[in-house]
Automatic annotation (TrEMBL):
CDD domains attached to this UniProt entry: RRM_hnRNPH_ESRPs_RBM12_like
Domain of life: Eukaryota
Entry-linked InterPro entries: ESRP, Nucleotide-bd_a/b_plait_sf, RBD_domain_sf, RRM_dom
Taxon lineage: Eukaryota, Viridiplantae, Streptophyta, Embryophyta, Tracheophyta
Organism in which the protein naturally occurs: Actinidia rufa
Domain RRM: 145-222
GO molecular function terms noted in the UniProt entry: RNA binding
Protein name: RNA-binding (RRM/RBD/RNP motifs) family protein
Key words, A-Z: Repeat, RNA-binding
Length: 234
């Protein structure tokens, strides 16, 4: 595994123990910065110029050094490894020095780290802020035409989700239920609305129930909906 030694190809991390902040389920490891502040926080950067990407599918023994190696040639400012329930989730956020480098980073999508391929997504500002618990007012977030649903019953169907949104006149084709490689539902889905304005209006359904479970809604990106759609066909 990359980065399993004390020094690797010029990258030093001192003690190889992962630095974790259990008071916050998300912990930051950096390339020299001791206090992380997300780019654009209070600075008004737009999603297209936000120099951050999100990684998914990382090996569970992944370190910050492995991520530096994965993006060799790009200037990384900080890495945040996502920790859920005390364990690394296989996701991370990577902050680059310049927005264009985040664009280059997207070209590494589905390249391998060890035996696993890693998915690389654009990251909207609120995605990072939500994960770091620095921003909670969903009315102030930036919207696209896509919403992510989390907390769905595993038995939920597309028709259930269409019915959940009622007056928004969705069709089954606009609902993409996320599934694991074995075909089982993850409890998440992506829904495409007619516009970003419609998606924002649909947030009135946030924390309402389907069956016995309440469903959380979040702004998302069209490429995540496309990925969910593609995986559901496999």
């Amino acid at each position: 595994m990359l980065g399993s030694g004390g020094v690797s190809d010029g990258y030093e991390v001192g003690s190889k123990r992962q630095r974790m902040m259990e008071s916050n389920p998300y912990f930051a490891v950096g390339s020299g910065s001791s206090s992380f502040r997300p780019y654009g926080y209070g600075g008004g950067l737009q999603p297209s110029t936000f120099p951050v990407v999100r990684l998914r599918g990382l090996p569970f023994d992944c370190t910050d050094i492995d991520i530096f190696k994965f993006f060799t040639g790009l200037d990384i400012v900080d890495v945040l490894l996502v920790n859920k329930n005390g364990r690394f989730s296989g996701e991370a956020f990577v902050v680059f020095a310049f927005p264009m480098q985040a664009e280059y980073a997207l070209q590494r999508d589905r390249q391998n780290m060890g035996r696993r391929y890693v998915e690389v997504f654009r990251c909207m500002k609120q995605g990072l802020l939500q994960c770091c618990s620095w921003f909670s007012d969903k009315d102030q977030l930036e919207y696209t035409e896509v919403l992510k649903l989390r907390g769905l019953p595993f038995s939920a169907t597309k028709s259930d989700i269409v019915e959940f949104f009622g007056a928004f006149n969705l069709t089954d084709e606009k609902v993409h239920i996320a599934r694991r490689p074995d075909g089982k539902a993850t409890g998440e889905a992506y829904v495409e609305f007619a516009s970003a304005e419609e998606a924002k209006k649909a947030m009135v359904k946030d924390k309402m129930t389907i069956g016995s479970r309440y469903v959380e809604l979040f702004p998302s990106m069209p490429d995540e909906a496309r990925r969910a759609k593609s995986r559901s066909r496999q």
